[in-house]
Design a protein that fits this description.
The structure holds three protein chains of three kinds. By secondary structure, chain A is mainly alpha-helical. Chain A has helices spanning 2-20, 23-27, 31-54, 58-88, 102-109, 113-117, 123-154, 163-182, 193-214, 219-238, 241-266, 275-289, 295-303, 315-337, 342-362, 364-367, 395-418, 421-431, 433-438, 443-469, 479-492, 497-513, 521-535, 544-550, 552-569. Chain A has three domains: 2-153, no CATH class; 164-239; 241-480, no CATH class. Chain A is 74% helix and 0% strand. Classes of the chains: A mainly alpha, B alpha/beta, C mainly alpha. Bound molecules: adenosine-5'-diphosphate (ADP) and magnesium ion.
């Protein structure tokens, strides 16, 4: 009981946190149900384990749930009452807690803001809030009970016929639905069609990954992969400008993620300054495609008798340059940090990322400082802008198409490398550097190759990003780009290529759908990172290898038993 | 017989402790030789000096016409010295087959570009490497385990896998650090047989550290004894066995055979 | 034979060239600019103050790293929370009229603010350890680091959401505004206080680690957790104590920085945190005296570097990170070497 009481206190702390960050203000009328659902899920999460271990009965589950709900609910009521009495007395709480405003408290109690201000909230409103939460606790207990009895059979992977085909066909159904929604005259009953379609696109792309996984290796997988690719390539023509602009960012980050995956996931070199190469790709392309933006280059060209007004290189011919420059950057970063161990490496690379950004900011002559490089040229198709060819493909869609192609190329290279002498060397080095070296792996060369290849991919992504943005500024290349890229490979599953795609969809795509609660994007993400590390460090779609590594302790147990048995027979 | 490896005055110091003290040693090509001595005598440290993990403060080591001191360990395996570790150090997240493939790394040549474009050379090399790995696994008796995760192998098999990984590099000289430690009598017999086959079938010179006197006396043609970092005796098994200094320093008064491999300190490095 | 020796020679040569270039640059700039000595003294004092703050924070990194072998990436935020808590304590004290009272009252109030800030940080640090790090103690090293990155973001943006975007401004009481002026050299009181308080707190920490039972237990845990546990040390308690010590120092730094810079914001722990980590690495992470000297060196470099090299002060961060990189190239385990972490390397 004491423990349950403590859990109630934790639930109260979480509810207080949600109040303090002003969630009720945004949820308005939906506050009480949403809080109740959250509490029920929380109760479910904390009781599920103990219930399985101790075999708690339904009665006990409900008791515990009720206690948690009551503790959290009553304390919350007291807290809200306290804030309300202050507000009613005209005390300004805002200078301390920015979000504690009448609107917030009113949403919490489902009354009008004026009622709070005048101090006229009825006790019944408080009672309802407490009741809501107490019931939510009970509901959580019930949920544990039902999932337990329901899932008991299917726990051990009992095969339900048809689920495999359902998984395989789901993305196609979703894509068809997206196409249907795009037709003129189809409405979504007053909801924002724009957003709904975007959400569906994200879900469809994600479910495509699961479909690929569900397909049997071989011909079936090949066919489904090909079909999915075709559908994906049609998307840019079907979506509108907004949806395309979100999806192209997702896929630009897929390219980044795949590159970083080589450095971190395969070679185990924790690089927190990855944004530097992304920036190099972007700036190189900006320099050659909009030389007039940079005072220095402009003057240089004029001095050489070349007009800085026209691009020096087109998009396609700039690709090798962007990639090469990024690769050189990767090697230059790599050389000094080669001798560093993991943690030092993380921090030094982070420092490098910051140095590059500070240079972009302060080398005003070359980079135009915070005013940025402007009017970067768009990619063309054999010298023609695709918008001139078809009305179905807008500028953002064209970038999306290129991002898909870029991702495909990068994924192809990554897969081939992973399954080669170099890929094995990376993994060996990650697992045990000394032994890897003693097995003949040239550490310097192998690490530099990881840095260079990872940087090349980032350079490619950066170039496309510059074209997408048209104007780029140093703040586009902050530490957060590195953190986003790292986070997406972690969430998706380190070392896993489908994981990268899924991670990018979740981290770069979903927040766009959740535009309304944009302020909460980073905290949600931060909590997600921590919870993920605790609950599922291998990511959502881990590579087979990672899963083995992180769970090798579990896997070892039965084997040890086997060994003993064998020894016994012998 | 010609000397394959010749060490002169090798000395390695840790802080105030001289772990290996002016050791001279010759390994004949095609022989099976042993290095014995009590725990902490400096045997593993000597291996580490030979394979480039440590750089000896003094002395020289010549192998097949090359000087080893100052070379990196990846260069040394390239010259033809491979090894196993006292506290098994496999690549745990890799399968058995992958471990042996990594072992062949130094003999493979395909470039990353070749891998991306699947050049015919790279394809052929990969195929040969896989065939060779399978052959080696069969040689050590793990033929059916290729797809098993290496950590999931039983302890004794992990030692065998380390040997397979080491000979993947087609060494001339193989260093085995306590290969029979922790094995039961049947496994030990098999290990003795394997060491013989390594030399007789594969033509590899073997130099091994071992505590199990049965193994040592059985298979060694030449034995070197270390104590507190110094070489105190060397010669044929019979000579070493009869040497009073060895009996006193190493075997201890009264104890003639120490069969347990569990004497090492827990957590000892290498 | 001597490939390794060659590369070492090359690195040494490179080092000599870098040092020569820097010296040459400093000398030419020194001659060309001709700053008065008082300018250098003032800058030097700024460097000491900065170094004192870095040291307080760097010690937290080093303590935790020494024991858990993890970078507590959120440590800068722990410091920031100290600053924020201190700000509210200051508001409270001001509302009670303590800040206008007699010298004794003001000093007491300042101590109160300092202690509240330290408390705020301690609560944050201990909670972090319990929720975000303890469950990951046996996981591969990357895992807790990522969790720490998550914690860092969480703390920053929670503060932003809860306390709002506007920076929180510390108002110095008259007692500590102003400073000492001798000739052209001006030393702000806050600078003096920071320096001496840092030295005092560090001495305290040093005594705790060297002289107390807790200190001995901490060293035992740093050496080998399992063995320490076998010998009856309560490892969890020692780790919590480590976080308490580190966070308390960071909280003090947060409050003092608040008074010195006059503002605290949700992200004002980030860059100092990064710098402090740099300082800890400079001194050899896990090495306590190393962290202090590394911090002083870094503070000095930041304060004097831009003027000495004749480049704009915006580049001071670049100089700091470049020094870090250079030091690590030549001495991969810091100037003074790692002490506690040698074994797990
Ligand atoms: N990396 C090291 N640092 C410090 N001392 C070491 C190191 N490696 C080995 N030693 C010491 O050197 C001595 C010889 O060790 P080792 O060569 O492992 O002995 P063994 O003959 O049992 O293999 C031991 O006292 C050991 O503690
Ligand atoms: Mg040994």
């Amino acid at each position: 009981m004491r423990k349950t009481f403590n859990i109630g206190l934790i639930a109260f702390a979480i509810l207080t946190y949600l109040t303090l960050i002003g969630l009720p203000t945004r949820l308005a009328g939906a506050t009480q149900p949403v809080l109740a659902v959250l509490l029920a899920l929380f109760v479910y999460a904390v009781l599920r384990g103990p219930a399985r271990e101790t075999g708690m009965g339904l009665g006990q589950l409900l008791q515990h749930g009720l206690l948690i709900g009551l503790v959290a609910g009553l304390l919350l009521v007291v807290e809200v009452g306290f804030f309300n009495s202050l507000l009613g007395d005209g005390v300004k709480i805002q200078p301390v807690f920015d979000q504690i405003v009448p609107l917030n408290m009113a949403a919490m109690l489902n009354v009008r803001a004026g009622t709070v201000l005048n101090g006229e909230v009825s006790p019944i409103a408080y009672a309802i809030l407490a009741l809501y939460l107490a019931l939510a606790g009970v509901a959580g207990g019930l949920l544990v009970h039902f999932t337990r009895s329901g899932a008991a059979g299917s726990m051990r992977g009992v095969h339900i016929p048809g689920t495999r085909w359902f998984t395989i066909l789901l993305p196609f159904a979703l894509f068809a639905f997206i196409y249907y929604l795009g037709l003129d005259g189809v409405t979504t009953f007053g909801n924002d069609k724009n957003i709904i379609r975007l959400l569906l696109v994200l879900m469809a792309t994600g479910s495509g990954l699961f479909a690929l996984r569900a397909a049997h290796a071989g011909l079936e997988q090949l066919i489904i992969g090909a079909l999915l690719a075709v559908v994906l390539l049609c998307l840019p023509f079907v979506l509108n400008q907004f949806q395309n602009s979100v999806m192209n960012i997702v896929f630009i980050f897929v390219m980044m993620g795949l590159g970083l995956n080589i450095v971190v996931g395969y070679a185990g070199l924790l690089d927190l300054g990855y944004v530097a190469f992304f920036a190099i790709g972007a700036y190189v392309y900006a320099f050659v495609s909009a030389p007039f933006s940079s005072p220095y280059i402009s003057a240089l060209l004029t001095g050489m008798g070349i007009s800085p007004q026209s691009p020096l290189l087109g998009y396609w011919s700039a690709i090798p340059l962007a990639m090469l420059t990024a690769a050189i950057g990767g090697v230059l970063l790599g050389i000094p940090v080669l001798r560093l161990r993991g943690d030092y490496l993380a921090i030094v690379t982070l420092g490098f990322g910051e140095i590059i950004r500070l240079f972009m900011l302060n080398l005003g002559d070359l980079t135009n400082g915070p005013r940025g490089l402007l009017q970067i040229a768009q990619p063309t198709l054999f010298g023609v802008a695709p918008a001139a060819l078809t009305t179905h493909l807008d500028a953002q869609g064209w970038i999306f198409l290129l991002a898909i192609l870029g991702s495909a190329v990068v994924a192809f290279v990554a897969i081939r490398l992973n399954d080669s002498r170099l890929g094995r060397a990376w993994v060996a080095m990650r697992e045990d550097e000394d032994v890897a070296q003693a097995t003949g792996i040239h550490l310097v060369q192998t690490k530099l190759l990881a840095f260079a290849i990872g940087a090349t991919f980032a350079g490619l992504a950066g170039q496309l990003y510059a074209a997408r943005q048209v104007n780029i500024f140093p703040e586009n290349f902050s530490l957060f780009v590195s953190i986003d890229a790292l986070a997406l490979i972690i969430v998706g599953g380190m070392g896993s290529i489908p994981g990268v795609v899924l991670g990018a969809l979740a981290l770069k795509g979903l927040p766009e759908v959740l535009r309304g609660v944009d302020e909460y994007r980073i905290v949600t993400f931060a909590v997600l990172l921590i919870v993920m590390m605790i609950v599922r460090p291998e990511g959502i779609l881990p590579s087979a290898r990672r899963r083995r590594e992180l769970h090798s302790e579990d896997a070892e147990l039965p084997v040890d038993e086997d060994e003993q048995l064998e020894g016994g027979h012998a | 017989m010609a000397a394959l490896l010749e060490a002169k005055g090798v000395t390695k110091v840790f802080g105030g402790l001289t772990a290996v003290d002016a050791v001279d040693l010759v390994i004949e090509r095609g022989s099976i030789a042993s290095l014995i001595g009590p725990n902490g005598a400096g045997k593993t440290t000597f291996f580490n000096c030979m394979t480039g993990l440590y750089r000896p403060e003094k002395g020289s080591i010549h192998f097949d016409g090359h000087s080893l001191v100052g070379q990196r360990s990846d260069q040394i395996i390239g010259l033809g010295i491979a090894r196993t570790y006292q506290n098994i150090r496999l690549f745990k997240g890799m399968t058995v087959l992958e471990n042996v493939l990594v072992g062949q790394h130094v003999r493979m040549k395909a470039s990353p570009l070749g891998a991306v474009f699947r050049s015919p050379f790279q394809q052929a090399e990969e195929r040969q490497a896989k065939e060779f790995a399978q052959e080696l696994l069969e040689f050590v008796g793990l033929g059916g385990e290729g797809e098993t995760l290496s950590t999931n192998l039983p302890y004794g098999d992990q030692r065998l896998l380390e040997i397979a990984r080491a000979i993947g590099s087609r060494p001339q000289l193989l260093l085995l650090d306590e290969p029979a430690a922790g094995m039961n009598p049947r496994e030990t017999e098999e290990m003795i047989d394997l060491v013989h086959r390594l030399r007789d079938v594969k033509g590899i010179t073997v130099f091994l550290i071992e505590h199990d006197m049965k193994v040592v006396m059985n298979i060694s043609e030449n034995i070197t004894v270390l104590d507190y970092g110094k070489k105190i005796a060397e010669g044929k098994p019979a000579e070493v066995r009869a040497n009073p200094r060895v009996v006193e320093a190493y075997l201890g008064p009264g104890v003639l055979v120490d069969t347990s491999g569990g004497l090492e300190k827990k957590g000892e490095k290498l | 034979m001597e490939k390794q020796a060659l590369s070492k020679l090359f690195i040494r040569l490179f080092g000599v060239v870098v040092i020569a270039l820097v010296v040459w640059r400093v000398v030419t700039v020194g001659i060309a600019e001709g700053y008065p000595t008082s300018f250098w003294i003032s800058q030097g004092i700024n460097g000491l103050v900065l170094g004192g703050v870095y040291a307080l924070v760097a010690l937290g990194y080093t303590l935790v790293y020494g024991i858990l072998f993890m970078i507590n990436f959120a440590h800068g935020e722990v410091m920031m929370i100290g600053g924020i808590t201190g700000f509210f304590a200051l508001q409270f004290a001001a509302a009670q009229g303590w800040m206008e009272g007699s010298t004794a009252v003001v000093v007491a109030a300042l101590l109160f603010i300092l202690i509240m800030g330290m408390l705020g940080s301690v609560v944050t640090g201990v909670t972090l350890e319990r929720l975000a790090y303890r469950p990951l103690r046996r996981a591969p090293r990357l895992v807790p680091l990522i969790s720490a990155i998550g914690a860092s973001l969480f703390l920053q943006y929670s503060v932003l959401l809860i306390f709002g975007v506007s920076p929180h401004s510390y108002r110095k009481p008259d007692l500590i505004s102003g400073g000492i002026r001798t000739g052209d050299v001006f030393i702000p009181y806050t600078g003096l206080i920071i320096f001496f308080a840092s030295v005092f707190l560090m001495l305290g920490l040093y005594l705790i680690i060297q002289r107390t039972k807790l200190g001995r237990a901490m060293r035992a845990v740093a050496e080998d957790k399992d063995t320490a546990a076998l010998m009856g040390v309560n490892v969890d308690a020692v780790i919590v104590a480590t976080f308490v010590l580190g966070s308390a120092l960071a909280g003090a730094a947060g409050v003092m920085l608040g008074f010195h810079n006059t503002v605290v914001k949700f992200n004002s722990g980030f860059i100092p945190g990064l710098k402090a980590f740099t300082a800890a690495v400079l001194g050899g992470i896990g090495n306590i005296p190393g962290a202090m000297f590394g911090s002083l060196i870094l503070g000095m470099i930041e304060a004097l570097g831009p003027s000495a090299l004749g480049i704009p002060t915006e580049y001071k961060d670049i100089i700091a990170f470049s020094v870090l990189v250079l030091i690590l190239i030549f001495r991969p385990s810091g100037i003074f070497g790692e002490i506690l972490s040698e074994k797990k390397a």
